[in-house]
Design a protein that fits this description.
The complex is a heterodimer of chains A (193) and B (795).
Chain A lengths: L1 H7 L5 H8 L3 H14 L9 H5 L2 H5 L3 H8 L9 H9 L20 H12 L6 E2 L1 H12 L5 H15 L7 E2 H7 L5 H4 L7
Antiparallel strand pairs in A: 1-2
Helix pairs in contact in A: 9-10
Chain B lengths: L9 H29 L4 H16 L17 H26 L1 H6 L2 H18 L10 H18 L3 H6 L1 H28 L13 H12 L3 H11 L3 H31 L4 H33 L9 H18 L4 H19 L2 H32 L6 H26 L9 H9 L5 H8 L9 H30 L11 H21 L4 H20 L9 H20 L8 H8 L24 H14 L10 H6 L6 H24 L10 H9 L2 H11 L16 H25 L16 H12 L5 H6 L8
Helix pairs in contact in B: 1-3, 3-5, 3-15, 5-15, 6-14, 6-15, 8-9, 8-11, 8-16, 9-11, 9-18, 10-11, 10-19, 11-12, 11-14, 12-13, 12-14, 13-14, 13-15, 16-17, 16-19, 18-19, 22-24, 26-27, 26-29, 28-29
Classes of the chains: A mainly alpha (193), B mainly alpha (795).
GO molecular function, one term (chain B): sodium:proton antiporter activity
Catalytic activity (chain B): Li(+)(in) + Na(+)(out) = Li(+)(out) + Na(+)(in); Na(+)(in) + H(+)(out) = Na(+)(out) + H(+)(in); Li(+)(out) + H(+)(in) = Li(+)(in) + H(+)(out)
Protein name (chain B): Sodium/hydrogen exchanger
Chain lengths: 193, 795
């Protein structure tokens, strides 16, 4: 543990980060190592190119969106703190931990869903319009499907979820349509415990 | 039918009493009737008597003259075995019927208990009649005939996703849990047996190995019993899959332990070498079983690729391949159950993509039927065998066994959960643990394994059997009956209604991708990463080999969507039965080929569909048409354009108007087609198909759309039309104009195909049109020739 504690000093604001995100020291360290690995030019920050270097991400249909999610509006680079904050969404929800209000925790169900919602909602208007849904479907289903089928599915999805009939899915409607899915399980990476 | 819960209702009782009486009468008759044939020895005498009588009556000196031709003869021997089998099956099925006529009983007592009771009764009756109780629970019969259908049913319909997600947990319970149970029970029993009170005890003769063998037999959770009980309590998916998965996978452990101890019980000692061999044997048995099953599964999937011309025997392939997988595994002493599960699970996605809808239904119902009958028979036979079997009751042994089983199970579950929870994301709560422990039911497999024991090696065989039966009875009766109230009491989460929405499907896939991406970013090769890799491999190579035709490229989401639409469409039609259309003509025309031959829901105003706007009915009808005939063509008949318009329609009246117009138009076309030179076309002919197509108002509106409405364009990415109100007006005007134009067009030649479908930029519209024709008309190829004479009505 000796070397790791000295490494911990490299991480800026380690204690605050741990407090905010709920990661343990070991996890934070692992993430920091990963961060350094991705940051090939050693700038201390990551740019979109660094993310794109991850091979499998290129194969991922929504890889681009995921990368974008790390960069909040307008920013060109992301530092370690932001990197960790994003990944904190995927920490498994620990039902036994009672520190602080559950709702505010970075990895609470609502926050996880909000993160996923923002991946759909590219223009950040708080709703998933049909267009945005279509883009996602197109990305996921690729060239194997005809436009009409995509339209049909998007239409059907909006019809099912859209309770206030405004033609788009708001965050609450999104949450509601996923109420049967165990989000804590689905949106947690075991590694981050 | 008696009213469900209202047995207090005098009318209900009145109605059910004669039924009940009749049934009881039938039951008694059958029981009596079964007593005679099921007894072994008496029947030949009857026949012999008859023959002798015949001879005597016909000709006194039968040696010389020819016998009189027997007009009526009784030859029971000839048909004895099949007759008895059928009688048993009939008895089982009647019992099942009977239980449901008595509503109160079946809600308190699980069916398995009732069936065992019936078995006891039948066995008792047979014994009372002085006949020999037939050895019905013959181990060969059980393992080769009764068990496979149940396991195949379970394996084929195994919910793969929760199973795989919890595989680690399940394996832990199955392997480690069973081992712990076996050694704990066996060891402690041996210890108890060695307790030497003052009076000598036959138990002292018991050695360690037979005890361990007994422990391994009794420790395995039984899939049949678990299925039977858990089916009725509708518990949540996680718990169900944990207990059920455990009961399936512990077969490998049981097989290995059983053979191991059986082998060495004769030898007397077990060395470390044997232990190591045992472990290796376990791996071979388990993995070998899965491999054999997977191979047969792939063979079956491959075969189903070519069955498009012989749809009738498709279900046969599924059954035969699976059964052969089971038998092959049993041949090598591998785990037959795991082979069967692997076979069913591997072949299912590919087979389902290849076979017809009807075959799918057939497979489903045959499997359910067989497994249901098997299960019923197993429980009845358990009852009969209890009455029959030689028993050696030993109070100490039996009670200690029962107690130890419970204790071992509880300790095992609690201990294992503590370890497992370190690795699980969703932890198992105390309630979950309790249900898992309580759900560890033993059943007929344990009994059959005990039955298989050789009397020479195991002098204590009868005692074992008695103890096994007692444990089985205890678990099935006591635990089976009380688990339902306990589940209610503990407020355990129940199974949620499995109606998966398209939203869930989309978002779940989206989240899968998201999580895979995050895992890649973290550099962590976790669950999602491997699942993604497997999916990619599957899509790239496996699907191409095993799925016929175009379906191999169909993404899962689309398949799901089709299934959902079809289901909903069928529901729509079935629930709309009985409402007559104002003009019956279009209904018969358009619904000719659809299985539920009922008129489609006529007046949208009368039906309050919660989720579907009325304009969708036509679309759904088209889906039915195309899907139910040739389900494998990609559909081009969805009317995207009106879908775009749909959500902006707030006028109910507009929909009504459209619908009426559609009906009128269809009628007109039907009339028009009479003027054509072609004599009254059968509904399947291309002409009528086109008539049907052309009659869609949405088809018309599509044409119009290319002119006037801004939203209906190739650039489908921007459907947000601010002028939704204008849209409606346009529609109305357009359609009215349409009618006039169309009349002329129709007079001149067969109605042209809707050109709206030909969007600029879609070069393969023609091909799709042909495909559509193929969809709609069974005589496929002829449709294509007619395409050439068609010209677009509107350029």
């Amino acid at each position: 543990m000796g070397s790791s504690s000295s490494n911990m000093n490299h991480i800026p604001n380690a204690q605050e980060l741990m407090q905010e995100t709920g990661f343990s020291a070991a996890h934070l360290l692992r993430l920091y190592e990963r961060f350094e690995f991705l940051d090939r030019d050693g700038k201390g920050e990551l740019s979109p190119d660094d993310f794109e270097a991850v091979r499998e991400l290129a194969l991922n249909p929504i890889g681009g969106r995921i990368i974008e999610a790390f960069f909040p509006q307008g920013q060109e680079t992301v530092d370690f703190a932001s990197f960790v904050r994003v990944l904190a969404h995927f920490r498994p929800n620990d039902p036994n931990r009672k520190d602080g209000a559950q709702q505010d925790q970075a990895n609470s169900r609502t926050r996880k869903l909000k993160f996923a919602f923002q991946l759909y909602d590219q223009d950040r208007d708080g709703k998933i319009s049909r267009n945005e849904l279509l883009q996602v479907l197109r990305a996921m289903l690729g060239i194997q499907v005809t436009e009409e089928q995509l339209q049909s599915i998007a239409e059907r999805a909006i019809q099912e979820a859209d309770l206030d009939r405004d033609g788009a899915i708001s965050f609450d409607e999104f949450k509601k349509s996923l109420e049967k899915v165990n989000i804590d399980h689905k949106m947690s990476v075991r590694f981050l415990k | 039918m008696p009213s469900g819960a209202g047995s207090h209702n005098p009318a209900g009782i009145g109605r059910s009493l004669p039924e009940r009486g009749l049934l009881l009468l039938m039951v008694l008759v059958f029981l009596e009737g079964s007593v005679l044939p099921l007894g072994a020895a008496s029947s030949p005498d009857i026949r012999h008597q008859e023959n002798v009588d015949n001879h005597k009556a016909a000709d006194p000196g039968h040696n010389f003259t020819k016998k009189a031709f027997p007009v009526l003869d009784l030859d029971y021997k000839h048909i004895q075995t099949p007759f008895e089998i059928s009688l048993w099956v009939l008895l089982a099925s009647l019992m099942k019927l009977g239980f449901h006529l008595i509503p109160r009983l079946s809600s308190i007592v699980p069916e398995s208990c009732l069936l065992i009771t019936v078995g006891l009764l039948v066995g008792g009756l047979i014994k009372l009649a002085g006949e020999q109780v037939p050895p019905v629970l013959d181990s060969r019969l059980f393992f080769l005939c009764l068990l496979p259908p149940i396991i195949l049913d379970a394996g084929y319909f195994l919910p793969i996703r929760p199973f795989m997600e919890n595989l680690g947990t399940i394996l832990m319970f199955a392997v480690v849990g069973t081992l712990w149970n076996a050694f704990f029970i066996g060891g402690l029993l041996y210890a108890v047996c060695q307790i030497q009170p003052a009076n000598p005890n036959p138990l002292h003769a018991m050695e360690l190995l037979p005890c361990l063998l007994f422990g391994s037999i009794i420790s395995a959770v039984d899939p049949v019993a678990v299925l039977a009980v858990f089916e009725e309590i509708h518990i949540n998916e996680l718990l169900h899959i944990l207990v059920f998965g455990e009961s399936l996978l512990n077969d490998a452990v049981t097989v290995v332990l059983y053979h191991l101890f059986e082998e060495f019980a004769g030898a007397g000692t077990v060395t470390v070498m044997d232990g190591v061999l045992g472990v290796i044997s376990f791996l071979v048995v388990a993995l070998g079983g899965v491999l054999v099953g997977a191979i047969y599964g792939i063979l079956s999937a491959f075969t189903s690729r070519f069955t498009s011309h012989t749809r009738v025997i498709e279900p046969l392939f599924v059954f035969v391949y699976s059964y052969m997988a089971y038998l092959s595994a049993e041949m090598f002493h591998l785990s037959g159950i795991m082979a069967l599960i692997a076979c069913g699970a591997v072949m299912r996605p590919y087979v389902e993509a290849n076979i017809s809808h009807k075959s799918h239904t057939t497979i489903k119902y045959f499997l359910k039927m067989w497994s249901s009958v098997s299960e019923t028979l197993i429980f009845i036979f358990l009852g009969v065998a209890t009455v029959d079997g030689p028993h050696a009751w030993n109070w100490t042994f039996v009670t200690v066994t029962v107690i130890l089983c419970l204790v071992a199970r509880v300790i095992g579950v609690v201990g294992l959960t503590y370890v497992i929870n370190q690795f699980r994301i969703v932890k198992l709560t105390t309630k979950d643990q309790f249900i898992i422990a309580y759900g560890g039911l033993r059943g007929a497999i344990a009994f059959s394994l005990g039955f298989l024991l050789d009397k020479n090696h195991f002098p204590m065989r009868e005692m074992f059997l008695t103890a096994i039966i007692t444990v089985v009875f205890f678990t099935v009766f006591v635990q089976g009956m009380t688990i339902k109230p306990l589940v209610e009491l503990l407020a355990v989460k129940k199974k949620q209604e499995a109606k998966r929405s398209i939203n869930e499907e989309i978002h779940t896939q989206f989240l899968d991708h998201l999580l895979t991406g995050i895992e890649d970013i973290c550099g962590h090769y976790g669950h999602h990463h491997w699942k993604d890799k497997l999916n990619r491999f599957n899509k790239k190579y496996v699907k191409k080999c095993l799925i016929a035709g175009e379906r191999s490229k169909e993404p899962q989401l689309i398949a799901f969507y089709h299934k959902m639409e079809m289901k909903q469409a069928i529901e729509l039609v079935e629930s709309g039965g009985g409402v007559k259309l104002p003009s019956a003509v279009p209904s018969t025309v358009s619904m000719q080929n659809i299985q539920p031959k009922k008129p489609p829901p006529a007046k949208p105003a009368e039906r309050a569909l919660p989720q579907l706007p009325k304009g969708r009915e036509e679309e759904i009808r088209k889906i039915l048409r195309s899907n139910l005939q040739r389900t494998r063509q990609r559909l081009r008949s969805y009317n995207r354009h009106t879908l775009v318009a749909d959500p902006y329609e707030d006028g109910f009246g507009d929909l009504l108007l459209k619908k009426q117009r559609m009906i009128e138009l269809e009628k007109k076309i039907k009339d028009m087609s009479n003027y054509l030179t072609v004599p009254a076309a059968p509904p399947d002919s291309p002409t009528m198909c086109r008539a049907r197509l052309a009659s869609d108002p949405q088809a018309y509106s599509m044409k119009q759309g290319s002119d006037g409405v801004p939203t209906i364009h190739v650039d489908l990415a921007s459907p947000q039309s601010p002028d939704s109100v204008n849209l409606m007006d346009e529609f109305r005007q357009a359609s009215q104009q349409q009618e006039k134009d169309e009349d002329q067009g129709l007079m001149m030649k067969p109605p042209s195909r809707p050109t709206g479908r030909r969007k600029p930029g879609e070069t393969d519209a023609d091909k799709d049109q042909q495909k559509l024709m193929r969809c709609l008309s069974d005589p496929g190829p002829s449709a294509e020739e007619d395409e050439d004479e068609d010209e677009p009505f509107l350029p």
